[in-house]
Amino acid sequence: MSASSTGALPTRRLAHGELELSEFSLGCAQLGNLYREISDEEARETVEAAWRRGVRYYDTAPHYGIGLSERRLGALLATHSRDDYVLSTKVGRLLVPVERVEGIDDGGFAVPATHRRVWDFSRDGIRRSLSESLERLQLDRIDVAYLHDPDDHMAQVFETAYPALEELRGEGVLRAIGAGMNFSAPLAELVRNTDVDLLMLAGRYTLLEQDALDELLPLCVQRGVGIVAAGVFNSGLLARAQVPEGAKYNYEGAPPELIERARAIAAVCERHGTTLPAAAVLFPLGHPTVVSVCVGARSAEQIERNVALYRNALPAELWSELKAEGLLRRDAPTPA
Description:
The protein is α/β, with parallel strands linked by helices. The chain has a single domain, classed as TIM Barrel, CATH 3.20.20.100. Helix content is 36%, strand content 18%. It contains eleven helices and 14 strands. Strands 3-4-5-8-9-10-11-14 form an eight-stranded parallel barrel, surrounded by five helices. A two-stranded antiparallel ribbon has the order 1-2. Strands 6-7 form a two-stranded antiparallel ribbon. Strand 1 and strand 2 (20-22) form a beta hairpin. Helix 6 (184-193) packs parallel to helix 7 (216-223). It is globular. Residues 1-5 have low confidence and may be disordered.
């Protein structure tokens, strides 16, 4: 797609095939009422703001609000040409109706507990998951399917789940396949032993930590695998210009040493006329295998703020000082 003709943000193409993702993308967990409820109107305003600001890659999952995110996202994107955006969802958890609804979902989403999640990485489970996602989305196709958090199911991934996705890609049902996790080691195993196109790496290649440079990212460069960098704020620790007490890291309270490190990075950012969250959004895009930074939002205001962060032009001296101060790995590629 052409950024100039569609008003889209700049895109990056995967090494294999012709799929292009907008450099900045929208993660849609909040559309599923992550942690707290948002209204249909707030969801609409969020997606409309993202589209207006040029976002053309959207990521969702059945897990997000027991299907609510997919239902909302599909309805909100239905007003746009299907050829003008890229959509990914995830497989590995089936939603099974419960006989009696009791209380609120215990998966972190503020929705009634109408279904339970059942792990299923079988061939039939993968195909059923995609079919049910298409029904919820009310769309004719999904571009990318990720295996969702298969860390504890890697044997099944290699035996049945990955072959099922490879089969669907071969049939032309999917344009790209991969996996999304919070840990880089199992993703590296997947890259070594399969022909995945794309990985979603959450929270493990950020301004705060770059361990993925040791193995995963060099493997991805070697094998032509793209990375979508998610969780770039490390659950909130890098989300504000001034790091507060009680900031979150990995969905829990951040250890004091990480708060101290984040504050040191923030001080360097301030000296160079920018902010910690702006540097956090842009940093991953410096690596040649990163094709998009995926950030969630629950309001139009958050979209406006996050896209503005992405549009920042940061000085090369910022990255140089962070490396000189030992706050960023010296071998980490940085944005031009």
